[in-house]
Amino acid sequence: MDGQEAVCLPKLSRVAVCGGTHGNELSGVYLVKEMMKSRKEEDNESGSQPVLVLSNPRATKKCLRYTEVDLNRCFSRDALNSPLLDIAPYEVLRSRELDALLGPKGSPYSVDLVCDLHNTTSNMGLCFIAYSDSDWISMHIFKHLKRCMPDIPMRYIHFDLPQDESYSLDSVGKHGFAMEIGPQPHGVVRSNIYTTMKCGVQHMLDWIHLFNSGRVFEGGFVDVFTLVKHLDYPRDCSTLDIIAAIHPQLQDRDFCLLNPGDPLFQTFSGETMPYNGTESLHPFFINECAYYEKGIALSLSRLRRVKIPAVCATSEQHAVIVT
Amino acid sequence: MDGQEAVCLPKLSRVAVCGGTHGNELSGVYLVKEMMKSRKEEDNESGSQPVLVLSNPRATKKCLRYTEVDLNRCFSRDALNSPLLDIAPYEVLRSRELDALLGPKGSPYSVDLVCDLHNTTSNMGLCFIAYSDSDWISMHIFKHLKRCMPDIPMRYIHFDLPQDESYSLDSVGKHGFAMEIGPQPHGVVRSNIYTTMKCGVQHMLDWIHLFNSGRVFEGGFVDVFTLVKHLDYPRDCSTLDIIAAIHPQLQDRDFCLLNPGDPLFQTFSGETMPYNGTESLHPFFINECAYYEKGIALSLSRLRRVKIPAVCATSEQHAVIVT
User: Fold this and answer.
1) Is residue B254 within 8 Å of residue B283, measured between CB atoms?
2) Which residue positions are annotated as catalytic (chains A, B) (predicted)?
3) What CA–CA distance (Å, rounded) separates A204 from A114?
4) Can you list the positions of beta strands (E) in A137-194?
5) Mean pLDDT, to the nearest integer, of A206-230?
6) Shortest CA distance to A160 belongs to which of A302, A319, A309?
């Protein structure tokens, strides 16, 4: 250990891999189906295998993001605990089922890790999206994938929300993140994106196996992009129609620094609208299809380097630090 | 004229530019809205302006391809003339309205030209899709755009169907074609694709203006890709789920020659499936989002060069050949 402190964390005995939380994000849908099929063929039901979940089968069947409300916004503490109305949308009912299967969120019974598979139309490569910048498990898995897949652009995105307010399926686990890969149009599966996701999941499961087997993982650094704010499209005051698209010089340049004065939008009549913020920030989710309705043209983040400690597994239920 | 025969064709007095025939193909939606807005601002209602149509407002509002049935399959002679049921889908009703506005199809009252704007997730550049390889008007406009926009990959696709069976909105005009531009995810507008469409439409209108003003356009050659057949994805016999995606070596290579034995699909477990046809053909609509449900993974075409004559405008109602 070279004198480095190692944080000993509980083993990851129960891991869930979820696809189709958004039913038109097809890499995850087909990857989870393929994993289910392989397992059936191998007739291998060992306890070390992940729980495989098709999160929103109804939306998946229709190849829609969701049928009534966005399932991946239904997992905040309040949303999960509010009284159920008779006319509750399908996704609200489904979120309770998933919380029962993988949670209950915040309880000792929840699975150890949820990896929720997503696609984006944005040119984001492979991203982890997590609510913590000090979840050493998620960050070590990220570091492992970066090492194993050096040709894939990879970033760690941090949504800085308290656990109660965290709203996505991956927040149900003790650890969790969305594995978000793009660019891929929704409703389409591209071999290269599918294969990247498949490799990413396999390397994650490999890491978990090594971790549970007692391997000590050295510390290091992770570059973390913390969400600062969202920007909406310019819109017509009366119709609320968008009146501009992402500027061609910004399109596909997710994570490249956006400086005050840089081209941001191009109106449909051809004018350039510059970024009028005061701070240089890193954009992501540039021109994501599903966010038009949410009023998000892109998100902006601040980058910083986070030091992560060495980690190893313990059979204890709580973290222990050893030297 | 250098002794070249010129075909004199009736002037194009009434031209329609349609967007949103598929409500989630956004370049056409926003281009038609922008053209409507400019016209309003200029307060310019001269007769030489095109008719502007938002074809499927209900699907556009929901950002869906269609609400009940695919509007762009509702314009065959049979479909337009079959008795209307009380429970007719919205798009069937809408197709009658559009036929009344721009047609009736096949009658002397139909508009002279329909340009219907579409987007595809396939890497197809700018394509004209037409039912004729001897519609000199459409082919001359195509040739004009190719000359004016040399940086844009441009192809002329021919669906070899008799007029009665032609099923798309553009078939309602005396001349007509779909202007299909990609790659762009459905539900997304990308500045570069929008701008290409805007330029394409402007050059088309310029050509029509010159043609109507008496300019003689020299003959030449157009490379025509005639549809031969569609290929479906490999599917699971019982669930009908696809079990493979377009092979990464074929993805985005629309119009590049596909030879027998070339990689065609990659299964979700990683195996390559080759093209087992006997003839080398040119693929297009490779991995188009909307065609998963239609059972089309890609279409195959045969390429040949078509000679087109010089053309000029006449005030007569029918074509005349002059030397």
Assistant:
1) yes
2) 180 (proton donor/acceptor)
3) 11
4) 154-158, 175-182
5) 97
6) A302
Tell me which chain B residues have a C-beta less than 8 angstroms from the C-beta of A188. Answer: 121, 185, 287, 289, 292
User: Could you tell me the pLDDT band of residue B9, with boundaries at 50, 70 and 90?
Assistant: very high
Q: What are the tens digits of pLDDT across the range B62-82?
A: 999 999 999 999 999 999 999
For residue B251, the tally of other CB atoms under 10 A from its CB is 19
Report whether A247 belongs to an annotated binding site.
Answer: no
- Least Cα separation, residue B100 to chain A (angstroms): 28
d(CA B310, CA B319): 12
Number of Cβ within 10 Å of residue B248's Cβ equals: 16
A27 vs B contacts (CB less than 8 Å): none
DSSP A83: P
Question: Pairing mode, if any, of strands B175-182 and B113-119?
Answer: parallel
Question: Which chain A residues touch B if contact means CB-CB below 8 Å?
Answer: 30-31, 33-34, 38, 63, 121, 183, 185-192, 194-195, 241-242, 245-248, 251, 266, 268-270, 287, 289-290, 292-293
Q: Is pLDDT of B1 > 60?
A: no
Question: Contact, B222 vs B303, CB < 8 A?
Answer: no
**pLDDT top residue among A233 and B39:** A233
Instruction: Report helix angle A191-212 to A26-42, nearest 10.
Output: 60
A279 is annotated as an active-site residue: no
State yes or no: pLDDT of A9 exceeds 50: yes
- Catalytic: which of B41, B165, B180, B279? B180
Cβ within 8 Å, pair A194-B33: no
Mutation test of the interface with chain A: which of B26, B35, B191, choosing the one with the most A Cβ atoms within 10 A? Answer: B191
Q: Which residues does A103 contact at the CB level (< 8 Å), separation at least 6?
A: A80, A109, A110, A111, A172, A173
Tell me if B191 and A248 make a contact (CB, 8 A cut-off). Answer: yes
User: According to the model, what pLDDT value does residue A320 have?
Assistant: 64
Question: In this structure, what token pair is assigned to residue A265?
Answer: 């939008």
* Residues paired with residue B306 on neighbouring β-strands, in sequence order: B222
B2 has a pLDDT exceeding 90: no
Could you tell me how far CA B236 lies from the centroid of its own chain?
32
From A73's Cα to the closest Cα of chain B, the distance in A is 20
Distances (CA, A) of B227 to A182, B115, B132, B133: 31, 20, 12, 12
- State how far residue B247 is from chain A, nearest Cα, in angstroms: 6
B286-303 residue pLDDT tens = 999 999 999 999 999 999
- Structural domains present in chain A: 12-224 (3.40.630.10), 228-304 (2.20.25.160)
Interface contacts (A, B; CB < 8 Å): 94
Residue B115 is encoded by which pair of tokens? 């340009």
Phi (first) and psi of residue B2, to 5 degrees: 50, 40
**Nearest Cβ partner of A190 from B31, B242, B287?**
B287
Give me the interface pTM, i.e. the ipTM.
0.94
Rounded to whole angstroms, the Cα distance separating B270 from B161 reads: 38
Measured CA to CA, the distance from residue B23 to residue B166 in angstroms comes to 21
Q: What angle do CA B243, A15, A74 make, to 5 degrees?
A: 85
List of residues 6+ apart from A106 with CB closer than 8 A: A77, A163
Residue to mutate among B188, B201, B265, with most A CBs inside 10 A, is B188
Question: What number of CA atoms fall less than 13 Å from residue A308's CA on the CB side?
Answer: 27
